[in-house]
User: Fold these one by one.
Assistant:
Number 1:
Amino acid sequence: MLRFVKQHMETIVGVELYPMVSFLIFFTFFVGLIAYVIMMKKGYIKEVESLPLTEND
C-alpha cells in the first residue's frame, strides 16, 4: 500500500514543495501565536483568568 502511494506521489510535478510550504505555514502560525500570548497585557490575562469563577445573577 505504501509503495503504491509513494509511486503515485512521485508522478506529481512539484510534490517536494508541499511539505516545505506546510511546515512554513505551521511554523508561522505557532510563532505568531506565541508572540501574541507574550505581548498580551497582564491585566487582560487576570480578567480572563477569573471569568469562570465570577458569578452573574
Number 2:
Amino acid sequence: MLRKIILTATSMVLGLISINAFAGHATLEDCIKVVNGVKKGSIARVEYHNFSNEGKPAYEIEIVDSQGISWEFECDKHGNIVEIEQEVDSASDPLFKARAKVSEAEALATALKVYPGKNEKTEYEIEFDGEPSYEFNIESKDGTEFNIEVSAETGKIIEVSTEGWEIGTEE
C-alpha cells in the first residue's frame, strides 16, 4: 500500500513537472532541450525557483559533463538560459581563489543578516564572467529555503531565490 502511495505521488509530481509549469510558457522539457544544446552531460539535479529580486520563476538545471565538471543553468519561463555557472569543490579551487576577496564567513554573515536562519549548505560557483560567488542554502524558522548568492569579490548579495522543489542529488 505504501509503495502504491509513493508511486502515485511520484507520478503526480512528474506529471506536474511535465505539464506547463510556467502557465503558458516554457516547460521543463523545453529548458532541458535548450541546456542540452549548450552543454552535453547528465542531469544531476533540477530545482524550481522563484527569484525574489526579480519576481520571476525559473528552473535551475545542473549538468555534469564528460569531464565530471558540474554546470548550473538557469532557464526562465520563456525557455531562455539566463545564467550559467560552473561549480567548484571549495573556495580553495584555483578558479575561485584567483578573484575571491571576501571570506566564506564574511559572506555568510552578510546573507544571515538579511535572511536569518540555518545555513544548510554552501556551494562555490564561478559566474559566466569568471566572478566567484558563494551560494548559501538558508532555511528560515518557518521552513522556507532561501538560496542566497553572495559575490566573493565584493561581498554583496547578487541573487536571492526561494526553492519550490528539487529533484536529484546534492553533493
Number 3:
Amino acid sequence: MLTLKEANFQDIQKEYDFVREIPENENGFTNAYFGASFDEFAHFCLPQMIAWSEGRDLPNGFVPETFYFLWEKDEIVGQFRIRHYLCPSLIEGGGHIGYFIRKDKRNRGLGKKGLLLTLEKAREIIPEDEIYLRTLKDNPASLRVMLSAGGCIHHEDGEHYYVRIQKQKLAQ
C-alpha cells in the first residue's frame, strides 16, 4: 500500500537516506539538498522543508511548498512537492507539482499512483482552478504519468510540455 507523508522529524533517517539518492537535477527535478551531510539535513534541510510548507522563511520570490514522501510499506520510494499557489516564475516554470521516483522503483506505476495521491492533497491546498505541471520533452514516462492522471497538454516550447489538470475533474 502506498501512502504520502509530509516531511517530518520522526522519519528523519529514512528521509535523509532517500534525499541523498536524488540527483542534484534529473529531468528537471532539482534537489537543493544534494550532498548534505546528515547533520546538515537534520539542522538545516529538514527544518527548511517544514518551514517552507508553513510559509515561513521563504526566499524572495518563493511560495509555500510542501514536501511529501511516497512510502511503500516502510520504504520511501518517491518525493512529491506541492507549491501552494502560482507566482509568475511558476506559471511558465515548474508549476504546482514536482516529483521524483527512485530509479530502482520506476516502471511500476508508482509515479501515477503517487501523483494521484498528491492531487488529492493539492485539491485542498491550491486555490487555482487548474493544477499546473511541466515535464521535459525527453521524459515521455513523466508525460504519460501526467496524462494518465487526467492532464492534458496545454502548450509546449522547445524543451517542455506544459500540462494542466482541471481541479473539478479530480475525485471529490
Number 4:
Amino acid sequence: MKVKTILVSQPEPKIENSPYFDLQKKQKVKIDFRPFIHVEGVASKEIRLQKVDLNNYSAIILTSRNAVDHFFRVAEEMRFKVPDALKYFCQSEAVAFYLQKYVVYRKRKIYVGKRTFNELTPLIKKYKDERFLLPSTDKLKPEVPSILNELGINWKRATFYKTVISDLSDLADVSYDILVFFSPSGIDSLFHNFPDFKQNDTRIAVFGNTTIKAVESRGLRVDISAPTPETPSMTMALEKYIEKANARKR
C-alpha cells in the first residue's frame, strides 16, 4: 500500500536541515511529530529521600541531555554550588557538547565516550578512585548498573527524572500509514492510550532491537527496522521502504 502519512513518536526536530524534512519533501509524504512519552523531573525532596548528598561526589556520569538538564536543575533546587573540580563522564560527544549550556567547557574536566555506555567504561576505570554519581531516569537500561558494578568503583545511582506516558487521546480518530517508534516505552504508551489498537494495514517502523522485541511481544508486525548495514538511520530505512511501496502504485 502507498505511503502518504507518517507519525514519528518524538518531538519535531528543531533544526531546519533535519533529514525528516528532506524525506518529506523528496517523497512527497506528510510527516507529523508527536512525543508518545515525555520526561518529568523528580523533586529535590524526593532525591534527598534517595539519600543523595551532592557534596559526596567528585564525578558525574551523564548518559543523555536529559541527565545534564536534571542534574543542574536539582543542584540549583538544593542550592548546591557545582565545584569547578567536578569531573564529567559523558556517554557521547552530543552529551558533552550539551554541557556547554551549563559550564565553561574548556575550564572543566570532561571525559567523552564514543557512543555506547560500554565505550565510556575505559575512561571511568582510569579514574576508579573517584566517587561517581549517576543521575538517571527510572527506565535505566539494566546493562548500565551491571557494567558499573563490574568495574568495582564507588558509585551511586539516583533517579533525577522519570519517563511518563503522554496523553494521546486527541489522536483517537486519526490514522497514519506508518507509525515510527524508538523505544519500548513508546509502545507502552500506544497501548496505554489505545488498549484496543489493531495494526491492520498500518506499517510499524522501529529503531533498535529492544523496540523490535516490544512490538513483537504485543503481537504486532515490524515492517521497517533500523539500524541495519544498508540503512543505519531511521530516515534512510523509511525512504527505502517508501520508494518501494509507492513505486508499485505509479
